[in-house]
Amino acid sequence: VGVNIPAKGEGRLDVRDCDFLDHRGTGRADACAIRYSGNLLGTLSLEGCRFIRNRLENPENMSFRGRGGAVNAIGCELVVTDCEFRENAALLGGAIATNQCEVTITGSEFVSNESLAFAGMYCTGGVSLSGCGFTGNISASGIIEAQGPSDLTGC
User: To 5 degrees, how large is the angle CA 42–CA 48–CA 53?
Assistant: First the structure.
């Protein structure tokens, strides 16, 4: 099934210099590596991490399912610095999916992620991207979906 870090509350979860490799999610939960629910007050911080080949799949026909192949964050501030998202897959948001989050991503790479919708990330809140790279991501409907105020600089 893979590693899932369920975190709830108003606190902060800091993840630094960690690798999340080759996890498969086939159940109902979203995200193979990290799922964080912050009750609109928490913060999830990822720094120097690698998320590689984490996939949410339907075991019956191996189609994609769920949100956020690597990371799913709900009701929080998501801060990502110098991370690599490579070959992750989900139905929505191949690498990252968020709901009611403010997202800040700096110096991170999104390479060869897959989804039916938005291979890099799907975010219902605002997104700020700075110095990020997007290469070889595959999706029927785009690479980034940001439904709030957004700023992309040097990407």
Answer: 95
Residue 6 corresponds to which tokens in the numbers above? Answer: 């369920």
Place of tokens 């991370």: 83
With bands split at pLDDT 50, 70 and 90, how would you rate the model's confidence at 136? Answer: very high
Distances (CA, A) of 153 to 21, 22, 88, 106, 119: 29, 31, 24, 10, 19
Beta bridge partners of 84: 50, 109
Tell me the whole-structure pTM to 2 decimals: 0.89
Alpha helices in 5-95 (DSSP H): none
Amino acid present at 109 = E
**Residue 100, number of CB atoms within 10 A of its CB:** 15
Supply 43's token pair.
């913060």
The length of the chain in residues reads 155
Query: Cβ contacts of residue 62 below 8 Å, gap of 6+?
Result: none
Residue by residue, DSSP assigns 95-141 as SEEEES-EEEEES-EEES-EEEE-SSEEESS-EEEES-EEES-EESS
Residue-wise pLDDT tens digits, 33-87: 888 887 777 899 999 999 999 988 765 655 667 888 899 898 889 999 999 999 9
